[in-house]
Amino acid sequence: MPELWLALVFLKLNLMDARLRRTRDKSKGDDAMISEGRAWQHFHHVHAVVRAIHTGATLGEHVLGSLVTFAMEEGDAGSGFDLHSFTEDFTIYVRVGDIGMVHALDDGGGVAQIMHNFLNEICTAPLNGAQAREFAARMAYGNRILLGRPAFYTYVSPDKTEIVLRSSLEAKFGFQAPRFDHATPSAEELRALILHVLPMLDPDDEGVPTTFGTRTRAGVRAAD
Q1: Can you tell me the distance from the alpha carbon of 85 to that of 103, in angstroms, rounded to the nearest whole number?
Q2: Which of 66, 68, 123, 126 could in theory staple to 73 by disulfide, Cβ–Cβ 3.0 to 4.6 A?
Q3: CA distances from 54 to 10, 11, 58 (A)
Q4: In degrees rounded to 5, what are phi and psi of residue 21?
């Protein structure tokens, strides 16, 4: 199950941040770790999902987040392996060979559902490395502005023989269609995410930069 592997990679990356100094120059007197100030309580769900392999917990409906896989162009720059973690947005992108994967870990599948039209357009052909990184940034942004985010909890049977990770989006609770909150964040946040993973793009260009050109002109607005 790729979601479990990606969740493990995401968790390990963040745990490693707690062991690495923010700066390697000790003369600056900064002994803080990269993870300084990180809200670890928000990692509980990811940790529970990763540990399910060892605890024997069953993963209920909507517990795993949105996973999008796509073909990658062969022979493009940076081919072989790529990795980027959007820590604050609980999203991770991994490329292995000709396969790319983007996983939003805590959205209950809402981001992929909303970005359905955008996904249909970009998956008409393999993506190059830059396009894959841009798409990952758009997934992370979608997770950031998602409304109706699920709550997660663990059910343990009275005799402790059954452990189930559950989501508040389960059918019996009444599923509410997810939607994006376009009122609070601005396009500048999406712009900053894309320029962070693609610093080679011109930061002086107006609007949100894109590597997709006209191929996704209709669907790109779903993630803006």
Answers
A1: 10
A2: 126
A3: 18, 16, 11
A4: -70, 150
Would you state the structure tokens that stand for residue 112, as one six-digit string?
A: 């992929």
Contact 147, 96 (CB under 8 A): no
How many angstroms separate the CA atoms of 164 and 59, rounded?
6
**Model's pTM, two decimal places?**
0.82
Q: What pLDDT sits at residue 190?
A: 83
Q: At how many degrees (to 10) do helices 129-144 and 187-197 cross?
A: 140
Q: Which of 91, 105, 123 is nearest to 190 (CA)?
A: 91
Under a CB-based contact definition with an 8 Å cutoff, are residues 161 and 57 in contact? no
Number of other residues whose CB lies within 10 A of the CB of residue 22:
14
**Cβ atoms of 216 and 118 closer than 8 Å:** yes
Residue pLDDT, tens place only, 139-195: 999 898 888 788 899 999 999 899 999 998 765 444 455 666 655 556 778 888 888
Task: Name the nearest CA neighbour of 146 among 127, 169, 166, 124.
Answer: 169
pLDDT of residue 146: 86
Structure tokens at 184: 């609070």
Round to whole Å and give the CA distance between 200 and 41: 35
